[in-house]
Amino acid sequence: MTVKNVLLSLMMLSCAGVAHAQGKLNVVTSTEDLAAIAGEVGGDRISVESIARGYQDPHFVEAKPSFILRMQKADLLIVVGRELEIGWLPPLITQSRNSKVQPGGAGYLDASMQARILDMPTGQVTRAMGDVHPLGNPHYWLDPENGKLIARSIAAKLTELRPNDRAVFEQRLADFTARLDAAEKRWLAQLAPYKGVKVVTYHSSYPNFSERFGLDVIGFVEPRPGIPPTPQHTLDLIGEMKRQNVKVVMVEPYFDLKTPNAIGRETGAQVIVLPPSVGGVKEITDYFKLFDYDVNLLVNALKQATGK
Amino acid sequence: MLVSRRGTRAALVAAFVAIAIPCTAQPVQDPAAAQALRSEIDQLKQDFSARLSALESRLTALEGAQPAGAPGAPPPAPEPAVAAAAPGSQPTAQVPPGAEAGGPSGALPVYGNAAAASKVFNPDMAAIGNFVGAAGKNTVAPLPALALPETELSLQAIVDPYARADFFLSFGEEGVAVEEGFLTFPALPGGLLMKVGRLYQAFGKSNTLHAHILPWVDRPLVTTNLLGGDEPLADAGMSVARLIPNPWLFLEATGQVSRGSGNAVFQGTERSDLSYVGHVHGYHDLSESANIDLGTSYAYGHNSSGVVDGTDLGRLTTSLIGIDGTFRWRPLQRAIYHSFLGRSEVIWSRREQPDGRQDANGFYVSGDYQFARRWFAGLRFDRSERAVDASVHDTGQSMVVTYWPSEFSQVRGQYRRTTYAEGPTANEFLFQFQFAIGAHGAHPF
C-alpha cells in the first residue's frame, strides 16, 4: 500500500460521501415488515435494510456490533415501538454515534404512533402476568389497515427529510394504499366464510390479524407472555379446545413445535406455522405476500377442519 | 446625525399639526356639527381596531397552520380514522369568549395539570438481587454460607438532547458504593462516543461486565489475582471510543484516562499519577448465526508497593496487557432455545516492586451451552499466577448449571475445585439466586 494508494482510496471515500449525501436516503428498520412498507413508499429514493430477520423472534434479537455500523450510516431509523425492541435496540442506538437516529431526533420514527394498538393493559400491570407490554401489543402490523397508517407516517417522515421528493412519496403512498385496499377486500372475502372461527395461538402475536379477519383467539400455548408452556396449562388448554371444538393452532416460526404438535394430536387440531413477518419464510418477500401466504395457509387449514 | 434627523421630523410634525388644527377647526363653528364629527371619528377608530384585531387573528391562525421555517411544507396529513391517543398530547381548553381577538386562535394548552404527571421523566429504575450460598471447605478464600453480597440499583435515563446517564449503585454488606455512574455523549462530532464518570475500565471482556451478566457465580482467578479482587477494575475518569472505518470488520478503539487511585491495582499517591487504559476490539459475523470477537487491552498506572510511611519513595508502576477472544453461536430461528458462547482471556501483569519486577500471567477458558429455553450448562478452567509473587499460581475448574424461570430471575449452581498455591485444594458448591425488578434492561451482548 503506497502513499498514492492511500490518497486514492481517501479520495474515493470522500467522493462516496458526497454521492451518499445527494443520493438515496439510507433507511434502517428494526423489522422486515417495516422495511417492506418503507420500500413501498420510498421506492428508488431510499435504500432500506432491516436489522431483525422475519423468521427471528423480534423480542430477542442480539445487539451485534455489526448492526452498529449499519445504524451509524442511517439517515432514518424506523422502529416498531411499544417496547418490542426494548431488550436490544437501546444499546445499538447509544453506540451508533449517529445523532439523527437518537430517540427524538429527526431521523427516528416510531411507526406505532398512528397505528391502532390493541391489548392496552388496564389497571395494575405486574410481571406476574409474564412479559407484558405495558404500552399495548406490539404486533400491530398484522392488520392491513395499520399497514396503511404505518405507510402514511413513513411517507410523512420521508417528505420531512427529502421535501423535494414529496410528489414521489405521495404518489407511491396513494398507489400502495390503493393496491392494499384491493388486496384487503380479497383477503376478507377469502376468510369471510370462517368468520368467528375459534383458534389458539402460541404467543399473542396475532390480535390485530384476528380482529381484522374475524378469528376468535380463545387461548395461547404459552401460559403467560414469554413464559414457556407448562404441563398443567397444556392440559387445561387441550380440555378447553375440546370443549370449544377448536381445530387450528397457529404457531410463529421461531417457536418449538413439540408442545403445539402434542396439542394437535390430542385435539385433532391442525398446527400451522403462520409467519407473522415479511421474511418469515422465503416466499414472503413483501407486505402483500405476507397476507397472501398467511390467508391461504389459514383458509386451507380451516377448509379441512370445517369442511366448508 | 440621527438626533438631528429625529429633530427635523418632530419639527415637521409640529408644523403639520399647527397648520392642520386651525384648518379643521376654523370653518366649523357649530358645536352640534363638531359633536357629530367626533362621534364619526370614534366610530372609525372602533371599526379600525376591530378590523386590525381580525387581521391579526387571521395572521396568527396562518402561522399556526404552517410552522415557521418550513415554507412550502406539505399540508398536514389528514388524521387517521382510528388513532391511538398520542402520548404527550397536551390536554386542551376552549378559548374563553371575548378573548379571540389578538390572541392565539384555537385550543389552548392547559399547564400545571395534575394528570400531566412529571414522573414520566423519572429514570428507568431496576433493582437486581444477588443471593449467594456456599458449601464445602475453603481455608484460603472462604465465602459465607449464605449472603446477599450485592444488590444493584440501576438508574438510567436520557439527560437532554445531547447525553444520557447511567448509575449502578451497589448495596453490599460493607455499605453502598457507586459501581458505575457516568454520562454518555452518544453523538459527538468525529464519530466519538464519550463517557465521563466512574467507569468499569475497558480492560478485556469480563472486567466490563456487571456481576448479574456473568455466566458464573464467581469471577475467574485471573481477575482475583491480577486485577485486584472480586470487583472489576473501576475508576473515575473519561473514556473516548471511536469506530475505525474499514471494509472488513467492526473495529473499535477505546481510550480511558482515570484518576489512577480508585481501585486495588492502581494506587497513585499524587494528582499526576493518572492511569491509562487502551482497548481495541474487532468483531466479525462468520454467518448470521455465528460470530467472533477479538480484543487486546493495555493498562498502566502507579502501584502502592513503593509507598513507605505514606510517602511514595519508589514511584513504582504496574502495566497490564490482555487479549480476549469470544466465539458465539445462536441459530436465528431457534435463538431462544439454543446458543453457545466460548470465551478466553489471557492477562500479563508487570508489577514493579521494591524487590524487583514481578511478571505474572493468567488465563481462563470457558464455554456455556444453552440446551433448552431455560437451561444452560457451562465449564470453566482457570490458571493464574499472583501479581505480587509470580512464582506461585492457583488453578481452578468449575461446572455450572443455570436455570431461568423467566427473563427476570435465574437460579445457578456451580461446583468449583480450586488448588491454591498454599497447598490446600478447595472443593465447593456455590449456588446463587438472581432476580430483577423494575425496568426491562437491555440484554447484554
What does this structure look like?
The complex is a heterodimer of chains A (308) and B (445). In chain A, strands 2-1-3-4 form a four-stranded parallel β-sheet. Chain A has helices spanning 3-22, 32-42, 65-72, 89-95, 144-161, 166-191, 207-213, 231-244, 258-267, 287-306, and strands at residues 25-29, 46-50, 76-79, 108-110, 197-201, 215-220, 248-251, 270-273. Chain A is of the alpha/beta class and 308 residues long. Chain A is globular, with a radius of gyration of 22 Å. In chain A, helix 2 crosses helix 5 and helix 6 runs parallel beside helix 10 (287-306). Helices cover 15% and strands 48% of the residues of chain B. Chain B is elongated, with a radius of gyration of 36 Å. Chain B has 445 residues and is mainly β. The termini of chain B are far apart. Chains A and B meet through helix 3, helix 4 and helix 5 of A and strand 6 and strand 10 of B.
Give a quick rundown of the structure.
Chain A has 308 residues and is of the alpha/beta class.
User: How many strands of chain B?
Assistant: 20
Mean pLDDT value of chain B: 83
Report the uncertain regions of chain A: 6-21
SS content category of chain A:
alpha/beta
Order of helices and strands of chain B: HHEEEEEEEHEEEEEEEEEEEEE
Globular, elongated, flat, extended or rod-shaped: what is the shape of chain B? elongated
Instruction: Estimate the strand proportion of chain B.
Output: over 45%
Q: Tell me the span between the first and last alpha carbons of chain A.
A: 71 Å
Q: What does the oligomeric state look like here?
A: heterodimer
Q: How many DSSP helices of chain B?
A: 3
Shape of chain A: globular
Alpha-carbon Rg of chain B, integer: 36 Å
What are the salient characteristics of this protein?
heterodimer, A: 308 residues, alpha/beta, four-stranded parallel β-sheet, 8 strands, 12% strand, B: 445 residues, mainly beta, elongated, disordered N terminus
